[in-house]
Amino acid sequence: MTRVEVDTPHGVARAELHSAAEGRAALLLGHGAGGGFDAEDLVCAARTATSSGVHVALVEQPYRVAGRRAPAPARQLDTCWLAVAEDLGQRWFPELPLIFGGRSSGARVACRTAEAGGASAVLCLAFPLHPPGKPDKDRGDELFGVEVPTLVVQGESDPFGEPEPSSQREVVLVPGDHSLRADTGAVSRAVSEWLGRVLRLLD
């Protein structure tokens, strides 16, 4: 494991790099709005990806590096994410396909930036389709606009909603709520099976 810092237009971001024995792609994972990259589902996804032959970078946004809990505005999050993706892609993962991903707010960032960042696929853990109890405030456009293969792993009782699958988007429901802590084995299986299919497409 290697930790690196990346300068962005809105401060210093941090990435924790985990190398796979055979690096066939690189997965960048972003954290939720109020948490870090030690969330159980992110740790689980990172371990699963490296076991599947995919390098992983757990990305910490500048507001978290600076010690703030309140997230930065969406535009700043996206700008910082793209800066990190470009830097890591050149320095650590040259010529490898990049997969964007994250949990909750990090999943939204991954979706919004997938096209601009040239992502080959997107992994969403607990995508917050709408605020709890407010289905009218739908954020589906962020997810539904992604045109590359996408996996959404969602808790069966997640109060943030349940996205619909499509031809490009797989939705796997697992036991538990928005934290995805109830059955990390199910999370791991979903990520592993999906990565296997994605890697075959990328080969």
UniProtKB/TrEMBL annotation:
* Gene3D superfamilies the record matches: alpha/beta hydrolase (3.40.50.1820)
This protein's source sits in the domain of life called Bacteria
Ranges in a coiled coil? none
A Pfam short name = Abhydrolase_11
Domain named KANL3/Tex30 alpha/beta hydrolase-like: residues: 24-170
InterPro entries from the entry?
Answer: AB_hydrolase_fold, KANL3/Tex30_Abhydrolase, NSL3/Tex30
Query: Under which name does UniProt file this protein?
Result: KANL3/Tex30 alpha/beta hydrolase-like domain-containing protein
Whose protein is this, by species? Answer: Actinopolyspora xinjiangensis
The lineage, from the top, is:
Bacteria, Bacillati, Actinomycetota, Actinomycetes, Actinopolysporales
